[in-house]
Design brief:
The chain is an alpha/beta fold and 187 residues long. The chain has a single domain (5-17, 35-185), classed as Dihydrofolate Reductase, subunit A (3-Layer(aba) Sandwich). The chain has 6 helices and 10 strands, in the order ββαβαααββαβαββββ. An 8-stranded mixed β-sheet has the order 5-4-3-6-1-7-10-9, sandwiched between helices. A two-stranded antiparallel sheet has the order 2-8.
Length: 187
């Protein structure tokens, strides 16, 4: 069985993962959405991410566990144990369950798909996802649309003028107005 590659991220209603100032404070999940994210991470076998996302997610390794609620501790446990592959030209090393990528995103995905393992291959970060999508390697998109218009910033999807037909698998609306959508690439 070939492991699926999934791209999961939150975006503003106008399609940005961060606003013009680089901020994304509007994407903080409410409790039910956070639980949903925990279940999503539980389904991963490995996560590929770029340097910026890797450094942001180090929060979960460094945070004082006494400051976390039960869901946050569960997420931290799952995230910290999850194997990660970090794509960076500037990092000399990574820590925890992460390793630096030794090839291109396509090389790493091919290797991960050929190795035994369960769970999907998660992709995090718009730049990395754009490379993987450009190579036609994303199987599923799991997108959270936050009810905010930020007016510019970093787009979720690369503007490469490439059409990708999708089939809707699931939707869910959360109490704070976030719309979760799950699509599968039509092949």
């Amino acid at each position: 069985m070939v492991r699926d590659v999934t791209y999961s991220l939150g975006m503003s209603l106008d399609g940005y993962i961060e606003g013009p100032d680089g901020g994304f404070q509007w994407s903080v999940p409410e409790p039910a959405l956070f639980r949903h994210s925990i279940e999503e991470v539980r389904g991963l076998g490995v996560h590929l991410l770029g340097r910026r996302l890797y450094e942001a997610m180090l929060y979960w390794e460094d945070v004082d566990r006494a400051d976390l609620d039960a869901d946050q501790r569960e997420f931290a446990d799952l995230w910290n144990a999850l194997p990660k592959v970090v794509f960076s030209r500037s990092l000399a090393s990574v820590r925890g369950s992460a390793r630096l990528a030794t090839g291109t995103p396509a090389d790493e995905i091919a290797r991960l798909r050929s190795e035994p393992g369960s769970g999907s291959i998660g992709i995090g970060g718009a730049d990395l996802a754009a490379q993987v999508a450009g190579a036609g390697l994303i199987d599923e998109y799991l997108i959270r649309v936050f009810p905010v218009v930020v007016g510019g910033g970093k787009p979720l999807f690369a503007r490469d003028e490439r059409e990708v037909p999708l089939d809707l698998l699931d939707t869910r609306t959360f109490a704070n107005g976030v719309l979760f959508t799950h699509y599968r690439v039509r092949r």
